[in-house]
Amino acid sequence: MDASTSRPTDAASSTATGHRTNRTTGCGSLAKGPAEMSRPPPASLTVQFIAERNNMKRTALLTTLFSLFLISSAQIALAAGATVTVDYNQPKQTLAGFGASITWLAGDLNSFTPADQSVILDSLYSTTKPSAGLSIIRGGSMLCEFNPSAGTYNWNHPLIQSEMSWMNRVKSTYGVNQFLVTTWTPPAFMKSNNSCSNGGSVLTQYYPDLANTMVLWLQNAQTSLGQQVNVWSVQNEPSNSTSYDSANYTPAQFISFVTGYLKPAMLTAGLTTKITVPENSVWGGPSYFDSNWGFPILQNQPQMDADVDILATHDYGANYALDSPSQAALQYNKPIWQTEVYRGHTYNGSITDALSWADSIHGALTTGNFSAWFYWWAIDYVNDNGGLIIYDNTNWTYKIPKRVYALGNFSRFMRPGSTVLATSSTSSSIQATAVRPTSGSVALVLANQSKSSTTVTVSLANLSNPPSSVTPYRTSATENQAPLTPIPVSGGSFTITIPASSVVTVVG
């Protein structure tokens, strides 16, 4: 069920209307002159005449200024249109997809009625109805539960099996077959603090055992899922020591473990699962990421360069803009993924919140060179913004915020394997993000971050065989990926109006 939302009051519009009314009334009160202008005024009326003449001058001046104001306003309204160019001669990164985590909470799905389970999963993964359209599932390895003591393994632990059940169900129903699995902590007995939580490093004598435990986990997952896990993350947020599952690695420790133990063990087992590091908590911009993680992990480390397939980061911290690329990722030709983010501890299901996520994704794809983007949880029982869908675990009701549909304006239509294309927009309020999809010619997201409706002319530059029409899908305060009337394309161009505070995807 959709969260109830109301359209925000357009304060700017109401203010402008009031100002315009006051301005007209003022001019009208000045538009009066002397009753008789043909006769010379008596001496006693000279002062009055001069005052009234001055009033007439002021009236004329104000009338002229007001006319100029109206002309200027009309010109501004005419100039409010925007031009967006999608350049097919400038292909960029290949899109891996969009995802969210099911760690710890996958089992809660079974507490909902079968009908509600279907609505929740449809809202997260469907590509045929309004949804987030996610294409990657992020799970947790639960190594503390899987390997609680030396030589003891428990693949049947509920936290593990609930994730396998979720993954298999989504794979079967929606065709989602990309899985990222993150380790929050190695087994406690392998760590310096002998605990699953509060940080602690892996003792070097346990590096071989940890590599073998990870391989065994991946082999079990392959049996359960009928395929290999696509990407394995060595450690979640390696600089954080938290009261929940956590562990610490330095870049040097990552290098030693991955090159000396994990990758050789995976190769011996015939696993082709890709390896990603570091999944650090704070992005902090490319300068921070590169100096603390990217270059220390890869620079002058040819074996690490060969063994690590993907760089990954979370998007927490003060500088969370993803619109500038990692130089380490570019220099070493590594895809970079943003694998976790949420903001705010007070629930916000509004279109304003949704537009903020559209802004983040736009920057990540168009200029940040990111190949994947993840929200934190798919579902969350805390009434904040931690999950795409928020539920109450006392009565098993739920609400679907607008961010689900704004994210889906990207992920539902921009599928794995699509190629991001260079775009430009003449308006800073109209954000254009485009891909060449694996099927079709274009999937273009136009996010209007302003409070004014904008007419946009789109040019599909250098596209040899443009579609004859494109179909818009609009998310606004009152719409969830609503399909609209197809728009004809002529000469590789089309025109579309993007309402204020809305996200529109056009596909063709």
Characterise the protein shown here.
The chain is of the alpha/beta class and 508 residues long. The protein folds into three domains: 15-32 and 42-67; 86-90 and 420-507, Immunoglobulin-like; 93-419, TIM Barrel (Alpha-Beta Barrel). The protein has twelve helices and 20 strands. Strands 1, 12, 13, 14, 15, 16, 17, 18, 19 and 20 form a ten-stranded mixed β-sheet that branches. The two termini are 30 Å apart.
List keywords for this structure.
3 domains; globular; Immunoglobulin-like; single chain; ten-stranded mixed beta sheet; eight-stranded parallel β-barrel; TIM Barrel; disordered N terminus; alpha/beta; 24% strand; 34% helix; 12 helices; 508 residues
Produce a short descriptive summary.
With 508 residues, the protein is an alpha/beta fold. The chain has twelve helices and 20 strands.
Proportion in helices: 25-40%
User: DSSP strand (E) fraction?
Assistant: 15-25%
Count of β-strands: 20
List segments where confidence is low: pLDDT < 50 over at least 5 consecutive residues. Answer: 1-79
Chain-averaged pLDDT:
88
Task: Determine the structural class based on helices, strands and strand pairing.
Answer: alpha/beta
Radius of gyration: 29 Å
What is the CATH domain class of the largest domain? Alpha Beta
**Biggest beta-sheet profile:** 10 strands, mixed
In CATH terms, what is the architecture of the largest domain? Alpha-Beta Barrel
CATH topology of the largest domain: TIM Barrel
**Cα end-to-end separation:** 30 Å
CATH superfamily of the largest domain: Glycosidases
Q: What's the helix count?
A: 12
Q: Supply the number of structural domains.
A: 3
The coarse overall form would be globular
